[in-house]
Amino acid sequence: MDQKDIFCDDYAIWKQNGTLIYENQHAGAILTFDPIIPGQLLVFPRRHVEDLRELGSMESRGLLCAIPEAFEELQRIYDTDVERVVAFYEMVKQKPSFEKAGHCAEKMLSHPDLRIMPTGYNSGGNRGKEAGQTIDHLHFHIFPARKERPGVVSAMDALLKSL
Ligand SMILES: [Zn+2]
Question: What's the rounded Cα separation, in Å, for the pair 30 and 87?
Fold first, then answer.
C-alpha cells in the first residue's frame, strides 16, 4: 500500500496528543488527516487486521458500535468544544505528516462548514487499491452530512445522474 500503517504505528501518539477522539476495547476513531469535509472520521479496529472477517465476534461488535459512537462523540465535540476540531486542522497544517494532508487541512480551515454541527453521516470502507484503499489496516470512513450539505452519497447520486 502507498502509506505507512498509521493505525498501528501512531496509536500511542494519538492517545497522548488528543488526536484519538474515541476508543472502546476493540476500536478507535480519529479525525481524518486528509478529509474532503470537516469532521470526517476514520474508525478502525485496534488489532491489526486487513479484512473484516479476521475479527472475532466481540471485536466486530466493538468496531461496528464504534461508528455511531464516534459520530456521537464528534457531535459532542462540535457542541462543547468546536475549537478542538479547528485546532486539529491547524496542527496538521503546521506539521503535515504527508503532503496531501497539509493541503486538505488548509481547505478545511477555510471551509464554510468548519464550525457547523454535523447531523447525519455516510460511512463506508475502501477495499483494494482500485477502490482507493491506501492503508492495509482495516478502517471505515465517516463522512459527516449537514442540512445545507447533504452528504457524499447524495453527491455521488447527483454525479452519476449527470453522467
Ligand atoms: Zn495495523
Answer: 14
Find the 155 Cα to ligand 1 centroid distance in Å: 31
Can you name the CATH fold of 6-162? HIT family, subunit A (3.30.428)
Phi-psi label, residue 86: left if phi above 0, alpha if psi -120 to 50, beta otherwise: alpha
Whole-number Å distance between alpha carbons of 47 and 86: 29
CA distance 14 to 156: 32
Question: What is the Å distance from ligand 1's center to 50 Cα?
Answer: 8
CA 77 to ligand 1 centroid distance, Å: 27
pLDDT tens-place string over residues 65-112: 999 999 999 999 999 999 999 999 999 999 998 889 999 999 999 999
What's the CA-to-centroid distance between 13 and ligand 1, angstroms?
A: 14
